[in-house]
């Protein structure tokens, strides 16, 4: 229990990941699926940024001269997550565009209804 | 000179990415075709030179940019990577050459530029996945490849395509979420992203963290398994591969599902290493799912009515062989998994392109309507026959070589029962490929009204298919050389 | 949008938003921000312009063809610069730009030109995404005649 409380960021991230994963997997509505995917991605960003954060250290921006490297937090996970955010944005945009197309062709965004339509 | 040759892997990715965005600047369709063919031939030729260089001098590590390994991105180029890179470039060249004659009949003419842009991006990202030695870089390339692959599915703009693409995209983003989570776990244990550094850190810190390592391994397996059509996660594949235009189907089936497998093998053996891997159940899981895929993929393929759907399900079965080879966990099994990647890529490209040519010339889709097609299109059916014989596993063809050696590998690892699975799966393959061939040549009652050679395409439009099938036969004949080449660079 | 208040206020604010976006792009190598962040601010200003002044006026001002060519040229230029950096690093050539004095605007080698190119691409792409969602399809998307 104490371990869970100490690592509350990681626990929260895993919890959010589970929520997003279940939404992405179980809901039939495409918009909800996209929201679930975003929650899932965000949880991973949270986890990663938490990995790089060191309490009491500064962001690695040079203002008045350079401190020793131990004065800054680890910038690599933050940089990685910037890339991850860009990727998530493009996937989300593409998915939304496809959803619009799907709605034009089928008239619904519920996946189970689309499966039942059996159209060509 | 040596330095210039070592630039080739990076240069081929950069050239493809650059010219992907030159294509939208062109105005005429003819220029698009000419430019793409010239660039693809150039990339294929320099990759061929690179393979020759690797064969003579062995592999190396390549630092990208000004920063060396723990901070910068590194490419690892060995025998396997260079060979697979050459394979991808060659097949993409042949498919683009084929699409030169047939693409306009399947998609709108204003989409042709888009198709080529997406295709170049796709190939560049696949080469990136194959070459990379940095797991986060691999993840980014995976996402790019997913988006581009969805793009070449929806380029046809039919109802079924959009549905298939959205199914693929949802499952794929699920998979990439799992992969990213796996990277987060690995990074939290090791603090590195470059594969060799992670490996060292994992070996040092493994004490008491076995569960964490196992979870990250399973995350990688499932995430990359979705992208590589591992059996119960294959449900996106048949829709996507059967609804896409035929050149896209060939690229999707031959290349797109192969690159994640290479990445998975690299993660297994370069990140975790044999010592950690042999202490877990992951390989047994992969083996079990591969066996299921081999059997059920073939069973599903047998019950399909549409030709392209059947070939797509056959891909699931063939991916089962590759997972089988990985799951055996010995050196021969891994070599055969990679050899089967080569064999299946060439064969499946042939099958999809010839099926696409049937559909394009006759307008039919279901298997029943192709009875007597051999009279109308003998050359194409001949190519189809050769490649399906390879799928079934007739000697001298590459499919036989990989099945034979997989059997050897399973005896070597002491799992004799798996031989029956291999035999059963081969028989099932025969059950669904032979009726098409036999009915195509001898479907007596359907020959009425069919004129000999009436729908045959000019030979120059079939040239890429013929070259592909010749290369397939050569891959079977010179299998000893290929296997020896792969074996030199295998990761175990 | 019909309201003249919204229209006038927006047209007053747009230059400031754009200047801020350009600032974020140009100082990307010295302070938080960079090509993606600044580009998305610029793209947001374009989207705002479109929402307020109507799609037909905006289409006349920012033609799809030109924007696409612009974005593609920026990407190609980015690829050429980055390829030069990679190749020169490996072959051990001299860096033609040099690093400059740390902390001043003209420093950081290739980072600022690359940031500018990324900013252009991101701004145009965000604008395209908004157009795509508004119209369902990018009209006049005929790349090839």
TrEMBL record, chain A:
<keyword id="KW-1133">Transmembrane helix</keyword>
<feature type="transmembrane region" description="Helical">
    <location>
        <begin position="38"/>
        <end position="56"/>
    </location>
</feature>
<protein>
    <submittedName>
        <fullName>Cation:proton antiporter subunit C</fullName>
    </submittedName>
</protein>
<dbReference type="InterPro" id="IPR050601">
    <property type="entry name" value="CPA3_antiporter_subunitC"/>
</dbReference>
<comment type="similarity">
    <text>Belongs to the CPA3 antiporters (TC 2.A.63) subunit C family.</text>
</comment>
<feature type="transmembrane region" description="Helical">
    <location>
        <begin position="6"/>
        <end position="26"/>
    </location>
</feature>
<keyword id="KW-0812">Transmembrane</keyword>
<feature type="transmembrane region" description="Helical">
    <location>
        <begin position="76"/>
        <end position="98"/>
    </location>
</feature>
<dbReference type="InterPro" id="IPR039428">
    <property type="entry name" value="NUOK/Mnh_C1-like"/>
</dbReference>
<dbReference type="Pfam" id="PF00420">
    <property type="entry name" value="Oxidored_q2"/>
</dbReference>
<keyword id="KW-0472">Membrane</keyword>
TrEMBL record, chain B:
<dbReference type="InterPro" id="IPR050586">
    <property type="entry name" value="CPA3_Na-H_Antiporter_D"/>
</dbReference>
<feature type="transmembrane region" description="Helical">
    <location>
        <begin position="139"/>
        <end position="156"/>
    </location>
</feature>
<dbReference type="InterPro" id="IPR003918">
    <property type="entry name" value="NADH_UbQ_OxRdtase"/>
</dbReference>
<keyword id="KW-0812">Transmembrane</keyword>
<keyword id="KW-1003">Cell membrane</keyword>
<feature type="domain" description="NADH:quinone oxidoreductase/Mrp antiporter transmembrane">
    <location>
        <begin position="134"/>
        <end position="426"/>
    </location>
</feature>
<protein>
    <recommendedName>
        <fullName>NADH:quinone oxidoreductase/Mrp antiporter transmembrane domain-containing protein</fullName>
    </recommendedName>
</protein>
<feature type="transmembrane region" description="Helical">
    <location>
        <begin position="249"/>
        <end position="270"/>
    </location>
</feature>
<feature type="transmembrane region" description="Helical">
    <location>
        <begin position="168"/>
        <end position="190"/>
    </location>
</feature>
<feature type="transmembrane region" description="Helical">
    <location>
        <begin position="381"/>
        <end position="404"/>
    </location>
</feature>
<feature type="transmembrane region" description="Helical">
    <location>
        <begin position="321"/>
        <end position="342"/>
    </location>
</feature>
<feature type="transmembrane region" description="Helical">
    <location>
        <begin position="276"/>
        <end position="300"/>
    </location>
</feature>
<feature type="transmembrane region" description="Helical">
    <location>
        <begin position="462"/>
        <end position="486"/>
    </location>
</feature>
<feature type="transmembrane region" description="Helical">
    <location>
        <begin position="113"/>
        <end position="133"/>
    </location>
</feature>
<dbReference type="InterPro" id="IPR001750">
    <property type="entry name" value="ND/Mrp_TM"/>
</dbReference>
TrEMBL record, chain C:
<dbReference type="Pfam" id="PF04039">
    <property type="entry name" value="MnhB"/>
</dbReference>
<dbReference type="InterPro" id="IPR050622">
    <property type="entry name" value="CPA3_antiporter_subunitB"/>
</dbReference>
<protein>
    <submittedName>
        <fullName>MnhB domain-containing protein</fullName>
    </submittedName>
</protein>
<feature type="transmembrane region" description="Helical">
    <location>
        <begin position="12"/>
        <end position="30"/>
    </location>
</feature>
<comment type="similarity">
    <text>Belongs to the CPA3 antiporters (TC 2.A.63) subunit B family.</text>
</comment>
<keyword id="KW-1003">Cell membrane</keyword>
<feature type="domain" description="Na+/H+ antiporter MnhB subunit-related protein">
    <location>
        <begin position="5"/>
        <end position="126"/>
    </location>
</feature>
<keyword id="KW-1133">Transmembrane helix</keyword>
<keyword id="KW-0472">Membrane</keyword>
<dbReference type="InterPro" id="IPR007182">
    <property type="entry name" value="MnhB"/>
</dbReference>
<keyword id="KW-0812">Transmembrane</keyword>
<feature type="transmembrane region" description="Helical">
    <location>
        <begin position="66"/>
        <end position="90"/>
    </location>
</feature>
<feature type="transmembrane region" description="Helical">
    <location>
        <begin position="110"/>
        <end position="133"/>
    </location>
</feature>
<feature type="transmembrane region" description="Helical">
    <location>
        <begin position="36"/>
        <end position="54"/>
    </location>
</feature>
């Amino acid at each position: 229990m104490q371990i869970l409380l100490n690592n509350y960021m990681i626990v929260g991230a895993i919890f959010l990941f589970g929520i997003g994963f279940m939404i992405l997997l179980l809901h039939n509505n495409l918009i909800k699926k996209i929201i679930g995917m975003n929650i899932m991605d965000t949880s991973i960003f949270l986890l990663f940024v938490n990995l790089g954060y060191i309490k009491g250290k500064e962001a690695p921006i040079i203002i008045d001269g350079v401190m020793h490297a131990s004065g800054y937090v680890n910038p690599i996970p933050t940089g990685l997550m910037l890339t991850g955010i860009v990727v998530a944005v493009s996937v989300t945009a593409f998915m939304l565009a496809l959803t619009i197309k799907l709605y034009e062709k089928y008239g619904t965004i519920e996946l189970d209804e689309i499966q039942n339509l059996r159209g060509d | 000179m040596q330095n210039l040759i070592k630039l080739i892997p990076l240069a081929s990715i950069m050239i493809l990415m650059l010219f992907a965005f030159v294509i939208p600047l062109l105005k005429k369709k003819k220029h698009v075709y000419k430019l793409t063919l010239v660039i693809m031939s150039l990339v294929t030729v320099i990759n061929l030179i690179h393979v020759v260089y690797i064969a003579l001098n062995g592999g190396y590590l390549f630092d990208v940019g000004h920063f060396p390994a723990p901070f910068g991105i590194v490419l690892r180029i060995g025998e396997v990577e260079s060979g697979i890179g050459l394979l991808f470039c060659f097949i993409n060249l042949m498919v683009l050459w084929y699409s030169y004659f047939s693409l306009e009949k399947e998609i709108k003419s204003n989409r042709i530029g888009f198709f080529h842009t997406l295709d170049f991006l796709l190939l560049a990202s696949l080469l990136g996945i194959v070459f990379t030695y940095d797991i986060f870089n691999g993840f980014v390339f995976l996402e790019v490849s997913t988006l581009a692959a969805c793009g070449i599915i929806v380029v046809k703009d039919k109802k079924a395509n959009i549905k298939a693409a959205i199914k693929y995209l949802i499952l794929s983003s699920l998979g990439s979420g799992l992969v990213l989570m796996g990277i987060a776990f690995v990074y939290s244990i090791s603090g590195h992203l470059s594969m060799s550094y992670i490996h060292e850190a994992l070996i040092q810190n493994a004490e008491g963290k076995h569960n964490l390592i196992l979870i990250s391994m399973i995350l990688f397996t499932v995430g990359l398994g979705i992208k590589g059509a591992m059996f119960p996660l294959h449900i996106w594949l048949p829709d996507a591969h059967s609804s896409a235009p035929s050149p896209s189907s060939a690229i999707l089936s031959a290349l797109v599902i192969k690159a994640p497998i290479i990445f998975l093998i690299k993660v297994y053996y370069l990140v975790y290493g044999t010592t950690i891997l042999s202490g877990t159940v992951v390989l047994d899981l992969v083996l079990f799912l591969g066996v299921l895929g081999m059997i059920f993929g073939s069973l599903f393929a047998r019950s399909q009515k549409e030709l392209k759907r059947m070939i797509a399900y056959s891909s699931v079965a063939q991916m089962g062989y590759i997972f089988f080879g990985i799951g055996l966990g010995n050196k021969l099994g891994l070599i055969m998994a990679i050899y089967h990647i080569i064999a299946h890529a060439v064969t499946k490209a042939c099958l999809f392109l010839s099926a696409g040519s049937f559909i394009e010339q006759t307008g039919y889709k279901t298997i029943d309507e192709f009875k007597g097609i051999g009279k109308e299109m003998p050359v194409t059916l001949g190519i189809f026959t050769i490649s399906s014989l390879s799928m079934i596993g007739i000697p001298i063809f590459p499919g036989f070589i990989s099945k034979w050696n997989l059997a050897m590998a399973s005896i070597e690892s002491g799992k004799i029962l798996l031989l029956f699975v291999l035999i059963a799966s081969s028989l099932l393959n025969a059950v669904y490929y032979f009726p098409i061939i036999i009915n195509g040549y001898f479907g007596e009652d359907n020959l009425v009204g069919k004129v000999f050679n009436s729908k045959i395409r000019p030979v120059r439009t079939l040239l890429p298919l013929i070259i592909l099938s010749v290369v397939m036969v050569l891959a079977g004949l010179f299998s000893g050389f290929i296997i020896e080449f792969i074996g030199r660079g295998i990761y175990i | 949008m019909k309201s003249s208040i919204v229209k006038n206020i927006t047209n007053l604010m747009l230059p400031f938003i754009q200047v801020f976006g350009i600032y974020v792009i140009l100082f990307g190598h010295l302070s938080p921000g960079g090509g993606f962040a600044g580009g998305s601010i610029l793209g947001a200003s374009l989207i705002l312009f479109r929402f307020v002044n109507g799609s037909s006026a905006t289409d006349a001002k920012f033609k799809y063809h030109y924007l696409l060519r612009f974005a593609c040229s920026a990407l190609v230029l980015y690829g050429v610069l980055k390829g030069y950096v990679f190749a020169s690093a490996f072959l051990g050539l001299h860096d033609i730009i040099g690093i400059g004095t740390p902390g001043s605007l003209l420093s950081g080698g290739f980072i600022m030109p690359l940031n500018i190119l990324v900013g252009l691409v991101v701004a145009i792409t965000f604008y395209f995404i908004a157009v795509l969602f508004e119209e369902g399809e990018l009209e006049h998307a005929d790349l090839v005649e």
